[in-house]
Amino acid sequence: CFTPNDFDDEKYSKYSAVVIDVLRATTSIATACANGCKELIPVRTVAEANKLKANNPDILLAGEREGLLIPGFNLGNSPFEYTREQVASKTIVMTTTNGTLALTKASAAQKVYAMAFVNAAAITSALQLQQDDVVIVCAGSEGRFSLEDTLCAGLLAERFSKTAKLSDTALAAQAMYRDFAAELLPRVAESSHASYLRSIGFEQDVMLCLQQDTLSVIPVFENGIITAWH
Ligand code: MLT
């Protein structure tokens, strides 16, 4: 699915889903899981997040609107904020513009993994151990295609190209990944969201989010909660 709008609840109910929001939600989620957060609850709206906090003052509120910290929240959406000191043993409730929306949309699947470049190898290993068909859901940008998510989907397609039958969209993502792989950082740096993040001071985030296989963590979203498999 190039965007969450392509996700069909009925068609994919027996699939495993891999949700990708490279810049930055699934990179931050992988970082939070790698740094020992107890659980992470993705929600669609600020109101839902605030309601959960009202019932449990110990939780950390996290996420962004227009890339920036939401007033009254503890953490924004920069992976640099999800340090062990901040998140270890914590419950995090996160709402972001596209990433958490994609996760909640894909929750009709059997099992949902959160993937970014940083944990691509770990997600690949998890998928190799299971039999389900897999749907990759790119979070995109407000219902539109996004370059970085499609390239990350293409990386996954590439890693399964010898063992799985790829759909036409997966083949297209794979071809794009092969074309861009040698110069991923400069090419993704040209994307609209990377440019926007740079304009609001998050250039380092873009660089971190494009590192590959730095975190050996598998965030799994089941029954409304993301927890880490290591
Ligand atoms: C999103 O979910 O739209 C993002 O992760 C936006 C961002 O914080 O860069």
TrEMBL record:
Cofactor(s) essential for the protein: Mg(2+)
GO terms assigned for molecular function: 2-phosphosulfolactate phosphatase activity
UniProt catalytic activity: (2R)-O-phospho-3-sulfolactate + H2O = (2R)-3-sulfolactate + phosphate
PANTHER family found in the cross-reference section: 2-PHOSPHOSULFOLACTATE PHOSPHATASE-RELATED
UniProtKB keywords: Hydrolase, Magnesium
InterPro entries: ComB-like (IPR005238), ComB-like_sf (IPR036702)
Protein name: Probable 2-phosphosulfolactate phosphatase
Gene this protein is translated from: comB
Family matches, as HAMAP family: ComB
Extent of the signal sequence: none
Lineage: Bacteria, Bacillati, Bacillota, Negativicutes, Selenomonadales
EC number: 3.1.3.71
UniProt similarity note: Belongs to the ComB family.
Enzyme class: hydrolase
